[in-house]
Structures are given as C-alpha cells and as structure tokens.
Amino acid sequence: MNTKLIILGGLLATNMMVSQTTGNLIPNPGFENGTPTIGSIYIFSNIVAENVYFTKVQNWRSACDGETGSPDIFDINSSDVNYDIPSSKWAKNVPVRVSGTRRYVGLSSGEPIQCETGGTLEANKNYNLSFYYTPVQRFGVNGTPFTISSNGPAIEVLLRSTTNSCTVQKLIYTSPYATSNNGTWLYNATSFTLSAAEAANNFNRIEFRIKQGTGNLVPVFMDDFSLTRDVSTACFTINNVIGSSQEPSLYGPQTVYKICNDANISINGACSKNEDRYWVGVEKFNLNSWTTSQVIKSGQWICTGCQADYFNLKNFVSPYNFDNNSVYMVSFNVGLDWDTNPSHTIKFFRTTSCKTTGLAEPEEINTELNIYPNPSNGTFHLAFNEMTTSMVEVYDALGNQIIKTQSGDSTIILDLSSYPEGLYFVKATTGDSIRMKKIIKQ
C-alpha cells in the first residue's frame, strides 16, 4: 500500500469538517454467511437448540425463547421447493433485491428476528439504520395472490441487549404501512441517539418484527440491513502558535505553523465530535519528498472515554527535543474501539526560539520584581520590593503589546486567562528603572 497516498488522504481532511460514518456495524447484513438447515433457521424451535444456532446463520437469531414461530431463510440455492427463490410457495415472483444476492429472511406474525451489532451502542452518538422489506405476493405455487389493504404490514425496530434480550427494549422506529405487494422492495431509514440512561441498558442487539395493519396477515421478506454511526472528521488545533507560512511540498503549498520552543508545545482536539478515543503520532517530515525522515513518536491511542482538549507534545515525545530546523507532522485520529476506519487528520509545524522577538531586554537596574507563579495557567502576581507607582506592560512573543496598566500597589495581578498559551514578556517601569521578565502561560 502506498504510504504517500494514505498521508495525502489525511492531509486533504485538514481543510474541512466532513461528516463521515463507520462501516456497517451489523455483521452478516444479508444472511449470506452460514448454512441454514433446508432453508430454515429454526432457532428456538424443537428442531435446533440455541447453542447450535451460530452454525446456521451467523449473527442472527430468533428474538426470544418464548416465541412460537421461527424466521425462515429463503435461498436461491435451496433444494427445498418451500424455500427456493423464486419458485417457492412463499417467494414466488419476489424480485432479486440486488444482483448476486442469495438469501432473504421471511417474517410472519410472531416471528421476530434479532441481530447482534458489532459492539454496545453508546450514549449521545448518532446512529443510522436502514433496511429493505417487501410484502409476500402469493401463497402456494399455484395459489391466489395475497390481497393487501391500505394498511398493510409495517416493520417495528427495537433495541435489545444480550443480558435482557426479551425484557428490556427500546422502540426506535416503525416503518410506514405497506400499501401494496407488487414486488417492490421498500427502503426504510432512520437515525437515533441514546441518552445516558438508555445506553446504560447495554443495547447490543437490534430486533425486527412485523406490525400488522388492519387487513389480513401478510408476511414480509427482509434483506440488506445497515447500522452506521456518525464520526466527524478528526479536528484539532495547535496551541501557542505565533505565526504560519505556506511552504512548498510535493503536493503543493502547505500551511506550516510556527511555535515557540521555549513554551509548552500542545494540541487541542476538542473540536472533534462523536469521538471516544484519540490517536496521536509525531514525525519529522520532508515536505518536498512527502516522506517521513524520522519517527519521533509512533502513533498510539492516548485517550479513551475522555476529552482531548489539551495534550502536551513535549511530554509525549520526551526525551526528544524539537529542533528549530525541521518540519514536524502531527497525526491525529478519533474513533471507537470497534471502528474499522477511524477519522484522521494532520498538521505541520516548526519550532523557533522566542528569546529574540524585537523586544530588547534592557539592562536590569535597581527595582526588584518577582513574578509568581511562573509558569501559570493565566493569573500572575507581580510583587515589587516597595510600594511605588509602576507602569506594567505585557507583550506577546511577536512584540505586540496586549496589556498596559498602572498601579501604586506593591502587588499587581495580571490576568492572561483569555490569551493563548505561550511565551510573554512583562515590562515594569518605575521612574527611570525598567525591569523585563519572561512569563509562560500554560
């Protein structure tokens, strides 16, 4: 597999926030895996016991032990005319759902079916469910067609759990009633989200059952089930950025951020959505050849079930020290433990020393100045050795004045909580005395 193409795909994702979904979380969505007995699942009937079920049709089962009927599998290759497609007594004239399909499941009243999802459904995540169904057209090889009222069969969809498969449920969807049985496969789709209380039931099965209309009982065929979960494109920002530039690369100009090497180098992934875990990797990168020149820290999942609103890259790569002559690439993924394709994005940065910023550090004379705590998360205390009127100015790493205040107290409090993390300079002027010190906001 071409590494450059993988990275380029991640690069393209840095410029936009695109809603994506996981792969299908329903295994065996078309009943193609497994070998049913003469076309029928016979789960929980007197013919096949529960512990034999998995050798029949994988990941599907009859809904509950107490059900009187069992769903049936209709197979193009069945040797039993009762379950053959398209000539069986039930499936006569059923159109092929999609080219190459072999099987459908047949449901009648009292014959619900459950599938096992690829994991436990979680709270506050958006899930998308879809399926196809069509009412049965006729009964018997030469029988008369079923008639269907304007209120024909509908499909109810419920969430269940392995622990309480028949006692705990949540209805998430009821399809419209079918109005005809002309052989058309009806597509149904819905989206749902679970609250924290609902997710506490550990739902990991989805049940499908017939809801009969006001007319006669009409069975249905179902096929091609899909359950996906929304995953937003991974998103993160780099903290302490003091500038950026467009640098040439094999794939055109790329944004390269500039960061003070004197301060903490960190990222913030809070702009990602629908995430459960975070993956971070750091590499020294050659933009012109679009290749990794050195893996500083191999990518690894750093956080599960938490918010990646602050992650210190200096601590992550320690004992390595970023040098000011290289371009670095940060890779950032978000996803679920059972996601097969987590969302991915990257950013580039360079480091620079911020000791020279255009602010000359004057000779320190006379007036004593103590600043604490330093570093700080935003609040700094300036303590002078005597009570006197002082002018205090704060400059960012580029030399821009961001605060100017005057006080006659021996202690002055500076609030930088609304400013980005990084390196700042404090200039205190008392009469003819000037004192300048560096502070770091973390």
Structure description:
With 442 residues, the protein is mainly β. The chain folds into 3 domains: 3-18 and 233-352, Immunoglobulin-like (Sandwich), CATH 2.60.40; 20-231, Jelly Rolls, CATH 2.60.120; 369-441, Macroglobulin (MG2) domain (Immunoglobulin-like, Sandwich). It contains 3 helices and 27 strands. The chain has helices at residues 3-12, 196-199, 313-317, and strands at residues 19-21, 60-62, 72-75, 103-107, 113-116, 127-135, 154-160, 170-174, 186-192, 205-211, 220-232, 237-238, 241-247, 254-260, 266-268, 277-286, 291-304, 311-312, 328-335, 343-352, 369-372, 379-384, 390-396, 401-407, 411-415, 422-430, 433-441. Strands 1, 3, 4, 6, 9 and 11 form a 6-stranded antiparallel β-sheet that branches. Strands 13-14-20-19-16-17 form a 6-stranded mixed β-sheet. The protein has a 5-stranded antiparallel β-sheet with strand order 2-5-10-7-8, with no helix packed on it. It starts with a helix and ends with a strand. Mean pLDDT is 75; it is low at 1-19, 38-55 and 356-367.
Our Rg estimate from Cα atoms comes to 32 Å
Class by alpha and beta content = mainly beta
Helical fraction equals under 10%
The CATH H-level homologous superfamily of the largest domain: Galactose-binding domain-like
CATH topology of the largest domain: Jelly Rolls
Number of strands: 27
Tally of individual domains: 3
Instruction: Give start-end ranges of low-pLDDT stretches.
Output: 1-19, 38-55, 356-367
What fraction of residues sit in β-strands? Answer: 35-45%
Mean pLDDT: 75
The CATH top-level class label of the largest domain: Mainly Beta
The coarse silhouette is elongated
User: Largest sheet, if any?
Assistant: 6 strands, antiparallel
